[in-house]
Amino acid sequence: MPKARLEHPPARRRTLSDPLAAALLPPPDESPVEREVRLKAEIDAKKVSDSIDEMIRQERNDRKKSRTEVNVLLLGQSESGKSTTLKREHIGAVWRISY
Fold first, then answer.
1. Are 15 and 22 within 8 A, CB to CB?
2. Per 3-state DSSP, what percentage of the chain is helix, strand, and coil (rounded to 5)?
3. Has residue 1 been placed in a domain?
4. Within a domain: 74
5. How many domains are contained in the chain?
6. What is the pLDDT along the chain (99 residues), one digit of tens a residue?
7. Of 70, 73, 77, the residue nearest 86 (C-alpha)
8. C-alpha count within 13 angstroms, C-beta hemisphere, residue 56
9. Residue 82, exposed/middle/buried by CB under 10 A (0-12, 13-18, 19+)?
10. Whole-prediction pTM value?
């Protein structure tokens, strides 16, 4: 008895399933001059985007370098909640705990 072949539905093109890709497609009636203008505008926008990304990267690196380290000494009896207090105060900072 021959094996039954499973019929797969036709694959959808990505441009049909992705609304952003469809929105970024060039107009169907675009003239060569309009195409050149559009491509130049895209290149200029890419340069601006890359420069903004570089500024953000540089600011992030500067912030990492200028971070000040704060030493905190928690004093108290054993089982008084020193570690719990430290964990509760943890707000986006990296704590190095030494006992």
1. yes
2. 50, 0, 50
3. no
4. no
5. 1
6. 556 666 655 655 555 677 888 777 888 898 999 999 999 999 999 999 999 999 999 999 988 888 777 777 888 888 888 888 777 776 545 555 555
7. 73
8. 6
9. middle
10. 0.46
